[in-house]
Design a protein that fits this description.
Layout: H1 15-27, H2 34-52, H3 57-77, E1 85-89, H4 99-113, E2 117-120, H5 126-134, E3 139-144, E4 162-165, H6 168-177, E5 181-184, H7 189-203, E6 212-215, H8 222-235, E7 249-251, H9 254-263, E8 268-274, E9 277-282, H10 288-297, E10 308-309, H11 314-318, E11 326-330, H12 337-347
Parallel strand pairs: 1-2, 1-5, 2-3, 3-4, 5-6, 6-7
Antiparallel strand pairs: 8-9, 9-11, 10-11
């Protein structure tokens, strides 16, 4: 074949043009904010990339199913976003007669009485205990479809607040993303996996600060034995920092567990980033003396400046983001999240 015989492919339509046309059709008739429009267009661009790269059909099925599962979970949780939630992890093999089951059920009942909702994996064992204790009106379920399990437990089955999922990674995302506190009870590989991932997310700042309570019955050895392992085999060789243990608390009674979860929000409310400032929203602003002491104690995590009182910042005002709350702001080093947890504990002791 000579050069003149070669077939010259037609010039491809620029992907951006195709993307713009597709997005215009998708967004027609919807009033979208600039931020939402940009994000949806970015998601559509990802689909274009998957198509352009001739992605394997099996990979496309995973992406499609995962996005569908997340979309359904977002829909279910959306009406309850303003309600605080406790996610409970634990063994599916724990029987109703077990003292740990009773403890989990009572813990769920106590936080439900405090106005919280309870999120579980919707299966048997500790998950059933959490759903039973909370009551159907205060319970969510994020169930994983497994061949050896029959489905959701009777306390959450067929409830509109039940989500069925195929993948463990999407399930864990929703169990962690939607909650404001976590209780982990004794369990097997799955429970330990969930607990370790949760602590990793908190340690690295990939999850917002939240209380984690590791719960067992009085005289129990599960978490105390685990804590010895952490001290001897994880902290001592330097795999984590000693202050990282502030990210969790071991509790042996319902009262201890409830105090840890609810006490975390005694003064602290929530946080968000505004530029390079970390803003902590509070019920009561620390006094001048308390602020001075906080700046002294936590100078190691302040990049520059100080922890100082603040008014709502423009992004908070535009989003009507808890404008009624007091605030402190500072330039956090984005690394020592266990120390940040200790700062929140200290703020909870402030009297205002």
């Amino acid at each position: 074949m000579t050069a003149s015989d070669e077939v010259v492919p037609a010039a491809p339509v620029p992907t951006s043009d195709l993307l713009d046309a597709a997005f215009a059709g998708l967004a027609a008739g919807y009033e979208l904010s600039p931020a939402r429009r940009a994000l949806l267009r970015s998601m559509l661009a990802t689909l274009f990339e998957l198509a352009h790269e001739d992605t394997d059909v099996g990979d496309l099925k995973i992406a499609d199913a995962a996005l569908g599962e997340m979309a359904e979970a977002f829909r279910v949780f959306r009406p309850y976003r303003s309600v605080r939630k406790l996610t409970m992890f634990g063994s599916a093999r724990t029987l109703p007669a077990d003292a740990v089951y009773v403890l989990a059920r009572d813990l769920a009942a106590r936080v439900a009485d405090a106005g919280w909702m309870v999120v579980t994996g919707a299966g048997p064992g500790i998950m059933a205990a959490g759903s039973e204790g909370a009551g159907r009106a205060h319970a969510f379920g994020v169930n994983i479809r497994l061949p050896h399990e029959e489905g959701a437990n009777p306390f959450i089955a067929q409830d509109p607040k039940l989500v069925e999922m195929r993948y463990f990674f999407t399930r864990k995302l929703m169990l962690i993303k939607e909650s404001h506190g976590y209780a982990v009870l004794p369990g097997g590989f799955g429970t330990l996996d969930e607990g370790y991932e949760l602590l990793t997310l908190l340690q690295t700042g990939k999850a917002e600060p939240a209380p984690v309570v590791l719960v067992e019955t009085p005289g129990g050895t599960y978490w105390h034995g685990w804590r010895r392992f952490i001290d001897e085999q994880v902290i001592r060789p330097g795999f984590i920092s000693p202050e990282d243990v502030s990210l969790f608390k071991v509790a042996n009674t319902v009262e201890e567990a409830v105090d840890e979860v609810l006490g975390f929000y005694r003064n602290y409310h929530s946080c968000r980033w505004v530029g390079d400032l970390l803003v902590l929203r509070l019920q009561v602003l620390p006094t001048a003396a308390e602020l001075a002491e906080l700046n002294r104690r936590f100078a190691d995590i302040i990049v520059s400046g100080s922890i100082r009182p603040a008014s709502p910042f423009p992004p908070e005002r535009s989003g009507h983001d808890h404008l009624d709350l007091a605030r402190v702001a500072f330039r956090f080093d984005k690394f020592h999240f266990a120390r940040l947890r200790l700062l929140i504990d200290a703020l909870n002791e402030c009297t205002g």
